[in-house]
Design a protein that fits this description.
Elements (H helix, E strand, L loop, with lengths): L1 H5 L1 H29 L25 H36 L2 H16 L2 H12 L3 H28 L2 H8 L4 H37 L11 H9 L10 H28 L22 E12 L3 E12 L3 E5 L6 H8 L8 E3 L2 E4 L2 E2 L5 H11 E4 L3 H4 L6 H12 L4 H14 L5 H5 L8 H12 L6 E5 L7 H18 L2 E6 L2 H7 L2 E6 L2 E7 L9 H8 L49 E4 L2 E3 L6
Parallel strand pairs: 3-9, 3-10, 7-8, 8-9
Antiparallel strand pairs: 1-2, 1-4, 1-5, 5-6, 10-11, 11-13, 12-13
Helix pairs in contact: 2-3, 2-10, 3-4, 3-6, 3-8, 4-6, 5-6, 6-8, 7-8, 8-9, 8-10, 9-10, 14-15, 14-17, 15-17, 17-18
Bound molecules: adenosine-5'-triphosphate.
The site of adenosine-5'-triphosphate (ATP) has 17 residues, from β2 and α11.
Length: 605
């Protein structure tokens, strides 16, 4: 309701439709008599005190008739919309249930009908069904159905490709049950939005049919019929068309605005509750770290409802260095990466005391400058290489685009560079691979192609967010080697995110351990055995090695990490820690133990 009040167009649409519905209920009760009373002395008059919008050819009051006609007009529009949506949705879902060939035939028929002008289709159906309100309603319903069927089919086909539908099929869930339980609930929202707008179209279509004499027939009348009757006098008393024309336009506008409001409300309902609130962080006053390709100080990310997945995270990455960010699922690693790349999803907001990339302070830049800097200096490699590459474009073309867009290269230069970069990430026959589409590549090749894409310009920082999680162990090794070579060759810094402490310790120079949105320990990778924080020690301890007793269960960390909205004031790990004391009710700061080792724990002070 609050959102509706803030959206004037939506509010207007809601008020118009609410008034129309109210009129449809009460107008015939109040003005029926005035609307049907004939007056031979006041035939086809213009506006006057007794008839504010004039009279028709039989001397009946046009304002009263317009108000009374609201019920029939809205009622018929509702019926036509009902016919159109129900038959459209049924038609659109049929191909999911029918055998493949029959399904294709249905879709071909729908495509044919969509191509046919809607009003002609309505008229044709109305003529076949018989002149009058019934025929017109059926005609408009039939005219609305193909667009709904097309929409339903397209959305159903999209949802049908999802993994959860594949899982349901694998479990042998019957087709009709997949449709009603898994498909339709997921496409209901756009269908409802379209229904509101279809109501407007139905109303306009029905009014047009009645105006042409093919809809409601005398003595019944809707707004279109009133327009039809008034039209004969329009040159003598133009005001006679004002009331019905205004009513049709207002209702049409009302339904369109209402559809829009539904769409906006649906978009907002997907967001977390509450308004976005930016974290307040005081800017850093000390000198920036020299030679750092990335310096992040006190980074925080906040979502509405007190969800703060990243709290006071400080990270520094130097040239040619790979820093590993480890932590269990939900500790805020990806969100930290997203905040550095300025791609935190709305309604999340970020704040930091300092954010410098390649020696440039991002907070001091305009949006355009920041985009340019990030586009040319930051390369991001995500977990799923399939979604990082556009399936409709060839690999070489996509890589080349990066160089033309941010590096100012010509097309020929960019293409040559794309092949060279593919070669650099150890892709065999790079010339040939550049011409292929992403689906023609294996997972490991795709991930290497994404790394090559990051290397198209001269990145200062590479952020790799679990780049090998989806790959098997041998391919994983290849990709990690390529990443190390890329860092060594370009002297860029890299932030490598993973939940696998074994992989991180092998690849990285330094490791930052994250727990419940904060960094709890930072140390050189080769000093992992000297880790002091109980969480890091538990992580290291849960790694099996050659001496691990294979007959016993693997070591685990009991308990669970708190959700971002439930992190307590004290040490977030206290619940799961074996060294917890009264002091842990106060959060320990991340303190430097040696030049390269920092820990946030009371126990190790
Ligand atoms: N759009 C969002 N709205 C609200 N909270 C979110 C949103 N996206 C993520 N979060 C929260 O942020 C927290 C951190 O998520 P993040 O993806 O950074 O974790 P992660 O450490 O990378 O985990 P994983 O290893 O599973 O990817 C999660 O607990 C999640 O609940």
């Amino acid at each position: 309701m609050r959102r509706l009040l803030k959206n004037p167009a939506g509010l207007l649409g809601t008020v118009i439709i609410a008034l129309m519905v109210l009129l449809a209920i009460v107008a015939p009760l109040i003005w029926e008599e005035a609307a049907t009373r004939m007056n031979p002395e006041a035939i086809s008059q213009g506006a006057s005190a007794s008839h504010p919008l004039g009279t028709d050819a039989l001397g009946r009051d046009l304002l009263a008739r317009t108000l009374v006609a609201t019920r029939l007009t809205l009622g018929l529009a509702f019926l036509a919309t009902l016919i159109g949506t129900v038959s459209g949705i049924l038609l659109g879902t049929l191909p999911q249930i029918l055998p493949r060939r029959a399904g294709r035939a249905v879709i071909a028929a729908v495509d044919l009908l969509v191509a046919f002008p809607a009003l002609l289709l309505a008229m044709f159906t109305a003529v076949v069904a018989g002149l009058g309100a019934q025929g017109a309603v059926l005609g408009i319903g039939v005219a609305l159905a193909p667009a709904f069927a097309r929409l339903t089919h397209t959305m159903t086909a999209t949802v049908a490709g999802s993994d959860y539908i594949a899982a349901a099929r694998m479990l042998r869930v019957p087709r009709h049950r997949i449709l009603t339980r898994h498909v339709l609930p997921n496409i209901a929202e756009p269908l409802i939005l379209n229904t509101a707008q279809a109501m407007g179209s139905a109303l306009l279509g029905l009014s047009a049919m009645s105006f042409l004499g093919m809809g409601v027939q005398a003595p019944a009348y809707d707004w279109g019929r009133l327009l039809n009757e008034a039209f004969g006098h329009v040159y003598v008393t133009p005001s006679v068309v004002v009331a019905p024309a205004l009513a049709v336009s207002l209702a049409g506008l009302g339904f369109m605005l209402l559809g829009d409001t539904f769409a906006k409300a649906a978009a907002h309902s997907r967001e977390a509750a509450g308004e976005p609130v930016a974290p307040v962080v005081a800017p850093a006053r000390d000198e920036p770290v020299p030679d750092a390709v990335l310096e992040v100080r006190d980074l925080a990310v906040a979502f509405p409802g007190g969800v703060t997945p990243v709290r006071q995270v400080s990270l520094t990455v130097h040239e040619g260095e790979i820093v590993g960010l480890v932590g269990e699922s939900g500790s805020g690693k990806s969100m930290t990466a997203a905040a550095i790349g300025q791609i935190v999803p709305y309604p999340g907001l970020t704040g930091s005391a300092r954010m410098r990339l390649g020696g440039v302070d991002l907070d001091g830049l305009t949006d355009a400058e920041r985009r340019k800097l990030l586009g040319s200096s930051l390369a991001m490699v995500f977990q799923d290489p399939t979604s990082s590459l556009n399936p409709a474009l060839r690999v070489g073309g996509q890589l080349a685009e990066v160089a033309t867009l941010h590096g100012g290269a010509t097309r020929t230069e960019a293409r040559a560079r794309a092949v060279e970069r593919l070669d650099r990430v150890r892709i065999k026959h790079p010339d040939d691979v550049a011409k292929r589409y992403p689906h023609e590549l294996s997972g490991g090749m795709r991930q290497r192609a994404v790394i090559a894409m990051g290397l198209m310009n001269t990145p200062r920082l590479i952020i790799a967010d679990e780049p090998t999680t989806a790959l098997d162990v041998t391919v994983q090794r290849e990709v990690l080697r390529v990443l190390r070579e890329a860092v060594d060759a370009t002297q860029a810094g890299a932030l490598f995110i993973s939940h696998d402490i074994a992989v991180v310790s092998e690849l990285c120079d330094r490791i930052a351990v994250m727990y419940a949105g904060r960094i709890v320990e930072e140390l050189p990778a080769d000093a992992l055995h000297l880790a002091r924080h109980p969480y890091t020690r538990a992580l290291v301890g849960s790694l099996p090695d050659m001496d691990t007793d294979r007959s016993g269960p693997l070591a685990t960390i009991p308990g669970r990490q708190p959700a971002p909205a439930d992190v307590a004031d004290g040490c977030a790990f206290a619940d799961r820690c074996t060294f917890t004391t009264a002091r842990c009710a106060v959060r320990p700061e991340l303190l430097t133990r040696t030049d390269t080792h920092s820990v946030a724990c009371w126990e190790v002070r």
